[in-house]
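Deliverable D4.2, example record:
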Amino acid sequence: VFATTVMTGYGPLDVANISQSYGFGKENVILPGSLIKKDVFSKIGKFYKSRSFYDVLWKKKVFSEIKYSINREDKLIYKKPVYGLNLFDVFYKNYKYSEGPINILKNKTSLIYISLFILFLFTMTFSVKLTSFYLISYFAIRQIIPFFKSGKNYGYLKKTNIFYIFLSGLMIDVGKLVGFFKSLISLANYKNILFTFLVLVFLSFFSPIYSFLGSKLVIIDEKIKSETAIVMSGMGEATYFNPDFQQRSIIAKDLYNEKLIKNLIIVSGKTQTVHEAKLIEVILTGYGIPKNSLKIMNEYPNSTYDAIIKIKNILKDNDSNEVLFLTSPYHSLRTKLIWNKNISNKKIIFPETTESLDKKKIRFFSKFKDIYVIFYEYLSIVYNFILGRL
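Output generated by the structure prediction step:
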Protein backbone atom coordinates (compact mmCIF):
# COMPACT_ATOMS: atom_id res chain seq x y z
CA VAL A 1 0.00 0.00 0.00
CA PHE A 2 1.34 3.40 -0.98
CA ALA A 3 0.11 6.61 0.60
CA THR A 4 0.05 10.20 -0.59
CA THR A 5 1.30 13.42 0.92
CA VAL A 6 0.92 17.13 0.24
CA MET A 7 3.84 19.51 0.93
CA THR A 8 2.96 23.08 1.91
CA GLY A 9 6.28 24.43 3.18
CA TYR A 10 7.61 26.35 6.14
CA GLY A 11 8.57 29.93 5.25
CA PRO A 12 9.24 31.49 1.80
CA LEU A 13 12.49 29.59 1.10
CA ASP A 14 11.03 26.19 1.95
CA VAL A 15 7.92 26.95 -0.11
CA ALA A 16 10.26 27.74 -3.02
CA ASN A 17 12.17 24.49 -2.43
CA ILE A 18 8.97 22.42 -2.41
CA SER A 19 7.71 24.20 -5.53
CA GLN A 20 10.97 23.33 -7.34
CA SER A 21 10.92 19.67 -6.31
CA TYR A 22 7.71 18.02 -5.07
CA GLY A 23 5.36 20.73 -6.21
CA PHE A 24 3.50 23.12 -3.87
CA GLY A 25 0.19 21.68 -2.65
CA LYS A 26 0.53 18.76 -5.04
CA GLU A 27 -0.39 15.21 -4.06
CA ASN A 28 2.66 12.91 -4.25
CA VAL A 29 2.83 9.13 -3.91
CA ILE A 30 5.16 8.29 -1.02
CA LEU A 31 6.64 5.16 0.48
CA PRO A 32 5.49 4.64 4.11
CA GLY A 33 7.87 1.91 5.30
CA SER A 34 5.61 0.80 8.13
CA LEU A 35 3.04 -0.51 5.63
CA ILE A 36 5.45 -2.66 3.58
CA LYS A 37 5.32 -6.39 4.25
CA LYS A 38 8.53 -8.33 4.72
CA ASP A 39 7.69 -10.75 1.91
CA VAL A 40 7.61 -7.82 -0.53
CA PHE A 41 11.28 -7.15 0.21
CA SER A 42 12.00 -10.85 -0.11
CA LYS A 43 10.52 -10.87 -3.60
CA ILE A 44 11.61 -7.47 -4.95
CA GLY A 45 14.88 -7.04 -3.07
CA LYS A 46 16.18 -4.44 -0.67
CA PHE A 47 16.86 -0.79 -1.35
CA TYR A 48 20.11 0.23 -3.02
CA LYS A 49 22.76 1.37 -0.57
CA SER A 50 22.91 4.83 -2.16
CA ARG A 51 21.55 7.68 0.00
CA SER A 52 19.27 8.81 -2.77
CA PHE A 53 17.32 7.46 -5.71
CA TYR A 54 16.85 4.08 -4.00
CA ASP A 55 13.13 4.67 -3.44
CA VAL A 56 12.55 5.78 -7.05
CA LEU A 57 14.19 2.65 -8.46
CA TRP A 58 12.50 0.40 -5.91
CA LYS A 59 9.05 1.84 -6.61
CA LYS A 60 9.53 1.39 -10.37
CA LYS A 61 10.32 -2.28 -9.77
CA VAL A 62 7.31 -2.70 -7.49
CA PHE A 63 4.97 -1.01 -9.96
CA SER A 64 6.05 -3.42 -12.69
CA GLU A 65 6.15 -6.68 -10.68
CA ILE A 66 3.79 -6.47 -7.65
CA LYS A 67 0.12 -5.76 -7.12
CA TYR A 68 -0.18 -2.51 -5.23
CA SER A 69 -2.73 0.08 -4.18
CA ILE A 70 -2.56 3.78 -3.34
CA ASN A 71 -4.46 5.22 -0.40
CA ARG A 72 -5.66 8.58 -1.68
CA GLU A 73 -8.29 9.13 1.00
CA ASP A 74 -5.97 9.85 3.92
CA LYS A 75 -3.55 12.53 2.72
CA LEU A 76 -0.57 13.36 4.89
CA ILE A 77 -0.11 17.14 5.17
CA TYR A 78 3.54 17.97 5.82
CA LYS A 79 4.07 21.50 7.17
CA LYS A 80 7.56 21.22 8.67
CA PRO A 81 10.73 22.33 6.79
CA VAL A 82 11.55 19.83 4.05
CA TYR A 83 14.95 21.10 2.94
CA GLY A 84 16.02 23.37 5.77
CA LEU A 85 15.79 27.03 6.69
CA ASN A 86 18.79 28.43 4.77
CA LEU A 87 20.44 28.16 1.35
CA PHE A 88 23.29 25.97 2.60
CA ASP A 89 20.78 23.41 3.88
CA VAL A 90 19.22 23.33 0.41
CA PHE A 91 22.62 22.83 -1.21
CA TYR A 92 23.78 20.21 1.30
CA LYS A 93 20.65 18.07 1.17
CA ASN A 94 20.73 17.93 -2.63
CA TYR A 95 24.46 17.21 -2.55
CA LYS A 96 24.00 14.28 -0.14
CA TYR A 97 21.06 12.94 -2.13
CA SER A 98 23.06 13.04 -5.37
CA GLU A 99 26.31 11.36 -4.34
CA GLY A 100 26.96 7.69 -5.00
CA PRO A 101 27.83 5.75 -8.19
CA ILE A 102 24.19 4.68 -8.58
CA ASN A 103 23.44 8.23 -9.74
CA ILE A 104 25.77 7.76 -12.71
CA LEU A 105 24.77 4.17 -13.47
CA LYS A 106 21.00 4.46 -13.02
CA ASN A 107 20.07 8.14 -12.95
CA LYS A 108 20.13 9.70 -16.45
CA THR A 109 19.52 13.13 -14.92
CA SER A 110 23.10 13.16 -13.61
CA LEU A 111 24.59 12.91 -17.10
CA ILE A 112 22.31 15.69 -18.36
CA TYR A 113 23.43 17.95 -15.49
CA ILE A 114 27.13 17.26 -16.08
CA SER A 115 26.85 17.65 -19.87
CA LEU A 116 24.97 20.96 -19.65
CA PHE A 117 27.43 22.32 -17.09
CA ILE A 118 30.45 21.45 -19.28
CA LEU A 119 28.69 22.98 -22.29
CA PHE A 120 28.07 26.14 -20.27
CA LEU A 121 31.77 26.36 -19.30
CA PHE A 122 32.82 26.00 -22.93
CA THR A 123 30.28 28.66 -23.95
CA MET A 124 31.84 31.08 -21.47
CA THR A 125 35.19 30.74 -23.27
CA PHE A 126 34.04 32.10 -26.61
CA SER A 127 30.73 33.98 -26.46
CA VAL A 128 29.56 36.54 -23.92
CA LYS A 129 26.23 36.92 -25.71
CA LEU A 130 25.52 33.18 -25.74
CA THR A 131 26.55 32.92 -22.08
CA SER A 132 24.15 35.74 -21.21
CA PHE A 133 21.40 34.02 -23.19
CA TYR A 134 21.99 30.77 -21.26
CA LEU A 135 21.83 32.60 -17.90
CA ILE A 136 18.60 34.39 -18.82
CA SER A 137 17.13 31.13 -20.12
CA TYR A 138 18.15 29.36 -16.91
CA PHE A 139 16.42 32.02 -14.80
CA ALA A 140 13.26 31.65 -16.92
CA ILE A 141 13.31 27.83 -16.79
CA ARG A 142 13.67 27.90 -13.02
CA GLN A 143 10.51 30.04 -12.90
CA ILE A 144 8.59 27.67 -15.21
CA ILE A 145 9.51 24.40 -13.43
CA PRO A 146 7.59 25.20 -10.17
CA PHE A 147 4.49 26.07 -12.19
CA PHE A 148 4.37 22.63 -13.80
CA LYS A 149 5.57 20.81 -10.66
CA SER A 150 2.72 22.41 -8.73
CA GLY A 151 0.06 21.20 -11.16
CA LYS A 152 0.10 24.30 -13.39
CA ASN A 153 -0.76 26.48 -10.45
CA TYR A 154 0.89 29.73 -9.26
CA GLY A 155 -0.46 29.36 -5.72
CA TYR A 156 3.05 29.10 -4.27
CA LEU A 157 3.75 32.76 -5.18
CA LYS A 158 1.36 33.79 -2.40
CA LYS A 159 3.91 32.48 0.11
CA THR A 160 7.19 33.14 -1.71
CA ASN A 161 8.53 35.19 -4.69
CA ILE A 162 10.50 34.75 -7.91
CA PHE A 163 13.85 35.57 -6.24
CA TYR A 164 13.43 32.80 -3.66
CA ILE A 165 12.32 30.55 -6.50
CA PHE A 166 15.51 31.31 -8.45
CA LEU A 167 17.87 30.99 -5.46
CA SER A 168 16.21 27.75 -4.43
CA GLY A 169 16.54 26.30 -7.92
CA LEU A 170 20.18 27.43 -8.13
CA MET A 171 21.10 25.77 -4.81
CA ILE A 172 19.27 22.59 -5.80
CA ASP A 173 21.17 22.45 -9.09
CA VAL A 174 24.57 23.29 -7.57
CA GLY A 175 24.09 20.68 -4.85
CA LYS A 176 23.10 18.02 -7.36
CA LEU A 177 25.95 18.95 -9.70
CA VAL A 178 28.59 18.64 -6.97
CA GLY A 179 27.07 15.34 -5.86
CA PHE A 180 26.98 14.00 -9.42
CA PHE A 181 30.61 14.96 -10.03
CA LYS A 182 31.59 13.21 -6.80
CA SER A 183 29.64 10.16 -7.99
CA LEU A 184 31.52 10.24 -11.30
CA ILE A 185 34.87 10.39 -9.52
CA SER A 186 33.87 7.52 -7.23
CA LEU A 187 32.90 5.46 -10.26
CA ALA A 188 36.29 6.03 -11.92
CA ASN A 189 38.23 3.67 -9.67
CA TYR A 190 41.65 2.17 -10.34
CA LYS A 191 40.19 -0.45 -12.71
CA ASN A 192 38.89 2.05 -15.24
CA ILE A 193 40.79 5.24 -14.42
CA LEU A 194 43.01 4.82 -17.49
CA PHE A 195 39.96 4.40 -19.71
CA THR A 196 38.37 7.48 -18.12
CA PHE A 197 41.56 9.48 -18.69
CA LEU A 198 41.76 8.45 -22.34
CA VAL A 199 38.11 9.31 -22.92
CA LEU A 200 38.60 12.77 -21.36
CA VAL A 201 41.71 13.38 -23.50
CA PHE A 202 39.82 12.31 -26.62
CA LEU A 203 36.85 14.51 -25.79
CA SER A 204 39.15 17.46 -25.12
CA PHE A 205 40.25 17.41 -28.76
CA PHE A 206 36.62 18.10 -29.69
CA SER A 207 36.25 20.95 -27.23
CA PRO A 208 37.15 24.63 -27.71
CA ILE A 209 39.57 24.64 -24.75
CA TYR A 210 42.77 24.45 -26.84
CA SER A 211 41.43 26.95 -29.35
CA PHE A 212 40.55 29.29 -26.47
CA LEU A 213 44.04 28.97 -24.96
CA GLY A 214 45.59 29.54 -28.38
CA SER A 215 43.50 32.66 -29.01
CA LYS A 216 44.98 34.24 -25.88
CA LEU A 217 48.45 33.91 -27.41
CA VAL A 218 47.49 35.92 -30.50
CA ILE A 219 48.03 39.69 -30.40
CA ILE A 220 46.23 41.79 -33.03
CA ASP A 221 46.76 45.56 -33.27
CA GLU A 222 45.46 48.12 -35.70
CA LYS A 223 47.54 48.60 -38.81
CA ILE A 224 49.66 51.76 -38.65
CA LYS A 225 52.13 53.42 -40.94
CA SER A 226 55.70 52.77 -39.79
CA GLU A 227 59.18 53.34 -41.15
CA THR A 228 60.29 49.88 -40.07
CA ALA A 229 58.88 46.36 -39.95
CA ILE A 230 60.55 43.25 -38.57
CA VAL A 231 59.85 39.93 -40.23
CA MET A 232 60.62 36.91 -38.05
CA SER A 233 60.34 33.63 -39.90
CA GLY A 234 59.97 31.01 -37.26
CA MET A 235 58.10 29.24 -34.51
CA GLY A 236 55.19 28.22 -36.68
CA GLU A 237 55.43 24.45 -36.77
CA ALA A 238 55.55 21.63 -34.22
CA THR A 239 58.66 20.05 -35.76
CA TYR A 240 61.19 22.51 -37.06
CA PHE A 241 60.84 22.10 -40.75
CA ASN A 242 59.39 25.51 -41.16
CA PRO A 243 57.41 26.66 -44.21
CA ASP A 244 56.05 29.45 -42.01
CA PHE A 245 58.44 32.04 -43.46
CA GLN A 246 56.50 31.93 -46.73
CA GLN A 247 53.41 33.29 -44.99
CA ARG A 248 55.51 36.01 -43.31
CA SER A 249 56.85 37.01 -46.73
CA ILE A 250 53.37 37.41 -48.23
CA ILE A 251 52.22 39.55 -45.28
CA ALA A 252 55.35 41.74 -45.48
CA LYS A 253 54.87 42.20 -49.24
CA ASP A 254 51.23 43.24 -48.76
CA LEU A 255 52.11 45.78 -46.05
CA TYR A 256 54.85 47.23 -48.22
CA ASN A 257 52.48 47.55 -51.18
CA GLU A 258 49.95 49.28 -48.89
CA LYS A 259 52.75 51.80 -48.16
CA LEU A 260 52.51 51.07 -44.44
CA ILE A 261 56.23 50.28 -44.19
CA LYS A 262 59.41 51.41 -45.94
CA ASN A 263 62.15 49.22 -44.47
CA LEU A 264 62.14 45.59 -43.37
CA ILE A 265 64.48 43.84 -40.96
CA ILE A 266 64.43 40.11 -41.65
CA VAL A 267 65.23 37.72 -38.80
CA SER A 268 65.53 33.95 -39.18
CA GLY A 269 64.26 31.34 -36.79
CA LYS A 270 66.40 28.35 -35.88
CA THR A 271 69.32 27.11 -37.94
CA GLN A 272 68.31 25.64 -41.29
CA THR A 273 70.14 24.19 -44.30
CA VAL A 274 69.27 27.38 -46.21
CA HIS A 275 69.13 30.61 -44.21
CA GLU A 276 65.43 31.48 -43.87
CA ALA A 277 66.12 35.21 -43.87
CA LYS A 278 67.83 34.79 -47.26
CA LEU A 279 64.81 32.89 -48.55
CA ILE A 280 62.51 35.71 -47.40
CA GLU A 281 64.78 38.19 -49.16
CA VAL A 282 64.55 36.18 -52.39
CA ILE A 283 60.76 36.03 -52.14
CA LEU A 284 60.35 39.76 -51.41
CA THR A 285 62.73 40.93 -54.11
CA GLY A 286 60.91 38.59 -56.47
CA TYR A 287 57.74 40.51 -55.65
CA GLY A 288 59.49 43.73 -56.63
CA ILE A 289 60.52 45.13 -53.25
CA PRO A 290 63.85 46.97 -53.68
CA LYS A 291 66.82 45.30 -52.05
CA ASN A 292 67.89 48.52 -50.30
CA SER A 293 64.65 48.40 -48.29
CA LEU A 294 65.67 45.06 -46.77
CA LYS A 295 68.13 44.43 -43.97
CA ILE A 296 69.10 40.83 -43.24
CA MET A 297 70.18 39.72 -39.79
CA ASN A 298 72.81 37.21 -40.82
CA GLU A 299 73.28 35.73 -37.36
CA TYR A 300 70.98 32.93 -36.23
CA PRO A 301 69.42 33.88 -32.88
CA ASN A 302 69.27 30.97 -30.44
CA SER A 303 65.93 32.13 -28.99
CA THR A 304 63.28 34.81 -29.30
CA TYR A 305 64.98 36.69 -26.48
CA ASP A 306 68.31 36.56 -28.31
CA ALA A 307 66.62 37.76 -31.51
CA ILE A 308 65.07 40.75 -29.73
CA ILE A 309 68.39 41.72 -28.12
CA LYS A 310 70.03 41.63 -31.58
CA ILE A 311 67.14 43.65 -33.03
CA LYS A 312 67.63 46.19 -30.23
CA ASN A 313 71.16 46.84 -31.43
CA ILE A 314 69.97 47.24 -35.01
CA LEU A 315 67.27 49.71 -33.98
CA LYS A 316 69.44 51.89 -31.72
CA ASP A 317 69.89 54.49 -34.49
CA ASN A 318 66.29 54.16 -35.71
CA ASP A 319 64.08 57.16 -34.94
CA SER A 320 60.78 55.34 -35.29
CA ASN A 321 58.81 55.00 -32.05
CA GLU A 322 56.56 52.23 -33.41
CA VAL A 323 57.74 49.08 -35.14
CA LEU A 324 55.59 46.56 -36.98
CA PHE A 325 56.43 42.96 -36.10
CA LEU A 326 55.48 40.01 -38.29
CA THR A 327 55.72 36.55 -36.78
CA SER A 328 53.51 33.50 -36.43
CA PRO A 329 50.26 34.35 -34.55
CA TYR A 330 50.84 32.04 -31.56
CA HIS A 331 54.33 33.51 -31.16
CA SER A 332 53.10 37.09 -30.79
CA LEU A 333 52.31 37.18 -27.05
CA ARG A 334 55.73 35.81 -26.05
CA THR A 335 57.41 38.24 -28.45
CA LYS A 336 55.49 41.20 -27.06
CA LEU A 337 56.23 40.32 -23.42
CA ILE A 338 59.96 39.96 -24.09
CA TRP A 339 60.02 43.08 -26.29
CA ASN A 340 58.29 45.28 -23.69
CA LYS A 341 60.83 44.25 -21.06
CA ASN A 342 63.91 44.81 -23.23
CA ILE A 343 62.97 47.50 -25.79
CA SER A 344 60.57 49.62 -23.78
CA ASN A 345 61.29 52.83 -25.73
CA LYS A 346 59.69 51.49 -28.91
CA LYS A 347 56.15 50.24 -29.25
CA ILE A 348 55.72 46.88 -30.95
CA ILE A 349 52.71 46.50 -33.27
CA PHE A 350 51.29 43.21 -34.57
CA PRO A 351 49.15 44.13 -37.59
CA GLU A 352 45.91 42.34 -38.26
CA THR A 353 46.27 39.57 -40.85
CA THR A 354 44.04 36.86 -42.23
CA GLU A 355 46.29 34.32 -40.49
CA SER A 356 46.08 35.98 -37.06
CA LEU A 357 42.30 36.41 -37.33
CA ASP A 358 42.00 32.72 -38.19
CA LYS A 359 44.01 31.69 -35.12
CA LYS A 360 41.95 34.04 -32.96
CA LYS A 361 38.73 32.18 -33.76
CA ILE A 362 37.34 29.65 -31.28
CA ARG A 363 36.83 26.18 -32.73
CA PHE A 364 35.48 22.94 -31.33
CA PHE A 365 38.34 20.89 -32.79
CA SER A 366 42.06 21.62 -32.70
CA LYS A 367 44.76 20.02 -34.82
CA PHE A 368 47.48 18.22 -32.93
CA LYS A 369 50.23 20.46 -34.35
CA ASP A 370 48.33 23.54 -33.10
CA ILE A 371 47.94 21.99 -29.65
CA TYR A 372 51.68 21.25 -29.62
CA VAL A 373 52.58 24.86 -30.49
CA ILE A 374 50.09 26.27 -27.96
CA PHE A 375 51.57 24.21 -25.11
CA TYR A 376 55.10 25.04 -26.31
CA GLU A 377 54.34 28.76 -26.23
CA TYR A 378 52.86 28.69 -22.73
CA LEU A 379 55.82 26.70 -21.42
CA SER A 380 58.20 29.12 -23.14
CA ILE A 381 56.47 32.08 -21.50
CA VAL A 382 56.87 30.42 -18.09
CA TYR A 383 60.52 29.59 -18.87
CA ASN A 384 61.32 33.18 -19.94
CA PHE A 385 59.51 34.55 -16.88
CA ILE A 386 61.66 32.39 -14.58
CA LEU A 387 64.79 33.67 -16.34
CA GLY A 388 63.60 37.27 -15.93
CA ARG A 389 63.40 37.94 -19.65
CA LEU A 390 59.83 39.21 -19.54
